Amino acid sequence: MERVKFVMEILDKNLMMVNDTGYVFDDGSFDETIHCYGVAYFCAAAAYRRGLDAELGFIIGLLHDLGRISNDDYTEGHGPTGAIMTQKLLADSGLFDEKEIEIIANSISRHSKKKKIDGPYEEALKDADLLERVFFMGDRGKSESKKRERISHLLDDFGLSIKNII
Question: Sign of the C-alpha dihedral, residues 150, 154, 159, 162?
Fold first, then answer.
């Protein structure tokens, strides 16, 4: 729990620097706080369901948009930037070992490349990031077929059907 609290403090400190609206998508429905925490919960659930460390999944989800939030960066480059920031913060904390930092940083760095298949934590984050959009942003059926396929597989993990949601 100490590690989760540490990461939540990092995220919350950076979120306080974002203006009230955060980044807004076309329909005006995006808020960084809701998004990061939503992705964290979905990522933890996906990690647990896949036999991975749920705490690590939660931490990855919390930090996945740190590059966007800290640098006001709304490009695909926010992942690698956030990964570099995260590596330093986690290494300096002394709460994470090198392997965990590598898993977290790689997941964050690669999360915008939804079409590419990566390792299990990267996939859990990609899935959680898309699923959060379905549940909280109303992104229903607007995404390309590859993203819909990714969402469908994740919902299958939880015994849900995309037809019930979209």
Answer: negative
